[in-house]
Amino acid sequence: MPSINAKPGPVLGIETSCDETGVAVYDRGRGLLAHALYSQVELHAEYGGVVPELASRDHVRKLLPLIRQTLAEAGMAVADLGGVAYTAGPGLVGALLVGAAAARSLAWALEIPAIGVHHMEGHLLAPMLEEDSPEPPFVALLVSGGHSMLIEVEAIGRYRLLGDTLDDAAGEAFDKTAKLMGLPYPGGPALARLAETAVPGQFRFTRPMTDRPGLDMSFSGLKTQVLLAWQRSDHGDAVRAAIARDFEEAIVETLVIKCRRAMQATGAKRLVIAGGVGANRRLRAQLAEAASRDGFKTYFPRLEFCTDNGAMIALAGSIRLHAGQCNDPQIRVFPRWDLQSLSALGTAPSNSGVETAWT
Ligand code: KG4
Ligand code: ZN
To answer: Is 48 left (phi over 0), alpha (psi -120 to 50) or beta?
Structure first.
């Protein structure tokens, strides 16, 4: 059985938590050696959202070829791997199990350590794949399809939730709003593209929960405002674009206000933005502007590493494996998993928080 203190060479990262199969090889000394992604977007498009069973089956079909392809691109054989990292949660249970089973089997056969990575920790550390890598302490805005969180990162693994969404996540609000106006799945990027074509200010949507102190967020009311505006409209292309523009403006401005508050409250000097909505160009531009006004620095992953990918999982797993952490050789996944339950580096292996994370 692999020793817990094994010091791995290149780490294979596997991401299968939702509708993207992501694989990458990350080496502590040499950085990212290769990465590949297979998106299931077309598979789910006709249903208007992710169908979990179809997602699992497609991961089964695509994962092994993608691992072979990524290793070939890195110029490596499986025997050159020093460790395996896989997304263990949160996410769709069947989809997670595909990645976990493949990762665990590979690690078992190769007698190398494996570690289950928290998907959101992967997102949060993704900016560290870039040349200008953020050093903790920092504040992170995690905005994806399932989460909208502001987190204070004292150190890797030491996460304090500053603010959360009370209902829909930012990405979910983008997706649902896009869907109700008849835009194709996945809605967020489609809505953002459409917004580019309209002038702002034709609709005035609220900036939810910015009129009172606090860092929590809520986006479901905004979605209802859009629904009413859309129902009252002529459903034409111009009005669709105008609504998209002002909806995006409302979400972006709300997130910027909350980020500025979080920076002020913590006194942090670095803000990390991660998760799928972090790919939104208007959000990136307005946060960069706020940062230069308020005197803090922003760190974004490159666009392709904002949305789900294997590179962030390989990186996060590599960091934890090098700190001497790895889990028991069992195939376990955690569809719900509190980010704050993770262990800091240099303390107990990350199994410790995981046991209580089942819901
Ligand atoms: O992080 P991610 O790939 O998957 C989750 O972990 O959820 O995030 C996907 C979310 C979706 O809701 C998608 O619509 C949104 O990110 N998204 C965007 C953009 N690109 C992706 N939302 C707004 N603007 C974008 N450019
Ligand atoms: Zn994600």
So the answer is: left
Half-sphere exposure of 146 (CA within 13 A, CB side): 17
Other Cβ atoms closer than 10 A to 237: 11
Sheet of 297-299, strand order: 158-164, 148-155, 138-143, 270-274, 297-299
Is the minimum distance from the CB of 94 to ligand 1 under 6 angstroms? Answer: no
**CB of 252 sitting under 6 A from ligand 1:** no
pTM of the model: 0.93
> What's the CA-to-centroid distance between 298 and ligand 1, angstroms?
19
307 lines ligand 1 (CB under 6 A): yes
Q: Give the pLDDT of residue 130.
A: 97
Are 254 and 163 contacting, i.e. CB atoms less than 8 angstroms apart?
A: no
How is residue 344 annotated by DSSP? P
Substitution site in 20, 144, 249 for ligand 1 pocket (most atoms within 8 Å of beta carbon): 144
Distance CA(21)–CA(38), nearest Å, equals 5
Look-up: residue for tokens 């392709």? 304
- The closest ligand to the CA of 255 turns out to be 1
What are the chain's domains? 11-125+306-358 (3.30.420.40), 135-300 (3.30.420.40)
Burial 158-181 (b: 16+ CB within 10 A, else e): bbeebbbbeebbbbbbbbbbbbeb
Which ligand 1 atom sits nearest the alpha carbon of residue 123? 1
Produce one character per residue of 205-236: b if its CB has 16 or more CB atoms within 10 Å, e if not: bebbbbeeeebbbbbeebbebbeebbeeeeee
3-state secondary structure of 184: coil
pLDDT at position 7 is: 53
- Residue 183's φ and ψ, nearest 5 degrees, are -80, 150
Name the average pLDDT for the chain: 93
Ligand 1 midpoint to CA 277 (Å): 5
